[in-house]
Design goal:
Length: about 325
């Protein structure tokens, strides 16, 4: 099974990332996923920064020389100021105009060398941050994101594999009240049905909105990837995703916990066991850990700020080698 490393945008240090690629390759990481800095690459609408394009192109060349497949995420947490100021994903018409142009531009510049695309990283979390307190607007943003996913798929399909990165977890009612039960059902639907049902049958189904079909949404990915933050849910999450989603290879990313690395080692070992069991009943082809590197104030990575390899990293990648 492929062992991947995920480097979120906030954990990528451009000044030292060429060295970081060599470090990860030396550990045995054959696939690394990073997020393109949309704001740096497109400081203005319809304009790509030449220095930024050159840096990523050089990174792809360096990765190829090191024998590493590099995947690019197109949207994680941040959008350019110009995009946000004019509505961003809260404005379906505006997003429908500029988002595809961003995808097209990135594909034209990097598509021949990149090993894979992840259009969105955890789209529900993105919507939650954008409109946390308004269910109606939240539903509108989610609808816009699903359409944006379909648009990205139309542009990217047929090239390097397109993978989802859907944040999933089992949601339980916080108490015995009817309101708590209804909210739990709503959150379950948002985390599982919106994306998996849509990718399975092409229907956008968002609580509080009428279901509608969207052309080219069904089957709109090459790899069905999920993100979990609870290692105990890994096995069930893979099997549930395989059951609900389209017939695609699966990938799972574990968000590594904070705390002592000795405890993280135990979590990684349990994750490997769960993935091995899941692969017996589902087409699980890749497992990943995120984040890779510590940064100031956050020690939840598998490699320190000084680039010392923690035991959790050694366990994860050495298990893949052997």
């Amino acid at each position: 099974m492929i062992r991947q490393a995920v480097v979120p945008h906030a954990r990528l240090d451009r000044a030292r990332f060429l060295e970081d690629l060599g470090l990860l390759a030396g550990l045995g990481a054959t696939t690394i996923r990073i997020t393109l800095d949309w704001s740096w690459l497109q400081p203005k609408a319809a304009t790509f920064d030449g220095d930024a394009v050159e840096w990523y192109a050089g990174l792809l060349q360096h990765a190829a020389a090191a024998g590493v497949d590099l995947q690019f995420t197109l949207l994680e947490r941040e959008v350019p100021t110009w995009f946000d100021n004019d509505g961003g994903f809260a404005d379906a018409r505006f997003a429908g105009h500029w988002w595809p142009r961003w995808v097209e531009g990135a594909s034209e510049r990097f598509g021949d060398a990149v090993a894979g695309w992840v259009p969105f990283d955890n789209p529900l979390a993105f919507a939650n941050r954008l409109v946390p307190d308004d269910p109606q607007r939240h539903g509108e943003v989610l609808d816009t994101l699903v359409v944006a996913w379909r648009d990205a798929w139309r542009i990217l399909r047929g090239g390097p594999p397109v993978s989802t990165a859907i944040g999933v977890k089992t949601v339980r009612a916080v108490d015995q009240t009817i309101q708590a039960a209804e909210e739990a059902r709503r959150q379950e639907h948002l985390r599982w049905d919106v994306w998996l049902q849509g990718l399975y049958d092409g229907t956008i189904s968002i609580p509080g909105r009428a279901d509608r079909e969207l052309a080219d949404l069904a089957g709109a990915c090459d790899v069905l990837g999920i993100i979990v933050a609870d290692v105990d849910e890994s096995l069930g999450a893979v099997l549930r995703t395989a059951e609900m989603g389209p017939d695609r290879p699966l990938a799972i990313t574990l968000i590594t916990p904070k705390g002592k690395d000795a405890d993280r080692v135990t979590v990684v070992e349990r994750f490997e066991t769960a993935c091995g069991e899941a692969a017996e009943g589902a087409p699980l082809q890749a497992m990943a850990l995120s984040p890779t590197f510590d940064v100031d104030g956050h020690d939840d990575g598998i490699i320190t700020r000084d680039r010392d390899v923690k035991d959790s990293a050694a366990v994860f990648f050495e298990a893949g080698v052997h």
